[in-house]
């Protein structure tokens, strides 16, 4: 995948998802953040919402209640508190 991002989405006790993507959208406390390859480095706090990951083969969504996102050198690390349902 050209211009691929390396993405790790982790909860305190497990990896929620890890792989490559072309775009990630995350719910920052300052508004939604859209991350593409070569984006300026950032560190931001997440609010409750949905993380959306887009790749060539799939689109994934992760509901979170908070956390933070770090982006540098086309690598995204998201440490999130996932939404817990009665089914979990």
From TrEMBL:
Location(s) in or outside the cell: Cell membrane
Please report the organism this UniProt entry assigns to the protein: Demequina litorisediminis
One Pfam short name: ATP-synt_DE_N
Q: Does the keyword Ion transport apply?
A: yes
> What does the similarity note say?
Belongs to the ATPase epsilon chain family.
Q: Please provide the record's keywords in A-Z order.
A: ATP synthesis, Cell membrane, CF(1), Hydrogen ion transport, Ion transport, Membrane, Transport
- Subunit structure, briefly? F-type ATPases have 2 components, CF(1) - the catalytic core - and CF(0) - the membrane proton channel. CF(1) has five subunits: alpha(3), beta(3), gamma(1), delta(1), epsilon(1). CF(0) has three main subunits: a, b and c.
Gene3D superfamilies, sorted: F0F1 ATP synthase delta/epsilon subunit, N-terminal
Q: How does it sit in the membrane?
A: Peripheral membrane protein
Give start and end of each ATP synthase F1 complex delta/epsilon subunit N-terminal domain. 5-81
- For the keyword Methyltransferase, the answer is no
- InterPro entries in the cross-refs: ATP_synth_F1_dsu/esu, ATP_synth_F1_dsu/esu_N, ATPsynth_dsu/esu_N
Question: Per its record, how is this protein called by name?
Answer: ATP synthase epsilon chain
What is known about what this protein does? Produces ATP from ADP in the presence of a proton gradient across the membrane.
């Amino acid at each position: 995948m050209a211009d691929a991002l390396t993405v790790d989405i982790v909860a305190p006790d497990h990896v929620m998802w890890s792989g490559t993507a072309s775009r990630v959208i995350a719910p920052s406390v300052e508004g939604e953040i859209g991350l593409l390859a070569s984006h300026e480095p950032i560190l931001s706090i997440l609010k409750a919402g949905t993380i959306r990951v887009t790749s060539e083969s799939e689109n994934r969504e992760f509901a979170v209640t908070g956390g933070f996102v770090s982006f540098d050198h086309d690598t995204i690390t998201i440490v999130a508190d996932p939404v817990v349902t009665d089914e979990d």
